Structures are given as C-alpha cells and as structure tokens.
Amino acid sequence: MKKKIILEGLDCANCAAKIENDINKLTGVESASINLMTTKLTIEAEDDKMQDVIETARKIVNKYEPDVIFKTA
User: Fold this and answer.
1) Are the CB atoms for 1 and 45 separated by under 8 Å?
2) What are the residue boundaries of the HMA domain, all occurrences included (predicted)?
C-alpha cells in the first residue's frame, strides 16, 4: 500500500533527510521518500501495518520539525 502525506511548512533539507531515514527503519516500511519541493512524504508499507506506520511517522516528523503540519492526502 502506498500513502502520500503533505508536510506543510517543511523547508529544512537536513530534517527531511533525518525524517526519511527514520521512517525507512520502521517495521513494515518498504520505502519512504520526501520530495522537499512539493513537501510530500510518500510511504510504501505493508497494508496491515500502514496505520501504525503513519502514526509513528507523525511522531518522527514532530520530533524534528514540531511546527510542520502533517496532512494525510
């Protein structure tokens, strides 16, 4: 399953790389990538783990960028 998430207000390339790296380490995640120009996070993960992955991804984003708004598309 593939999910796109908008990270409104993300403008730090270093933070985006850290977020992407941490999400890619999560159990069930096949791939995660951030397009800094569009501020979109794309996560590919196992269907049964997607909800947990999204919740954990939200926490990871808040850890590095507390002012970024996490919007599931």
Assistant:
1) yes
2) 1-69
Tokens of 73: 């598309």
Residues 26-48: what's their mean pLDDT?
A: 97
**Domain membership of residue 66 as a residue range:** 2-72
42 beta partners: 4, 33
**Residue-level length of the chain:** 73
In the block, tokens 């159990």 appear at 27
CATH number of 46's domain: 3.30.70.100
Q: What pairing do the DSSP bridges indicate for beta strands 29-35 and 40-45?
A: antiparallel
The span from the CA of 56 to the CA of 8, in Å, is: 17
Question: Model pTM?
Answer: 0.94
Cα–Cα distance list, 34 to 10, 18, 39, 41, 48 (Å): 10, 10, 7, 4, 22
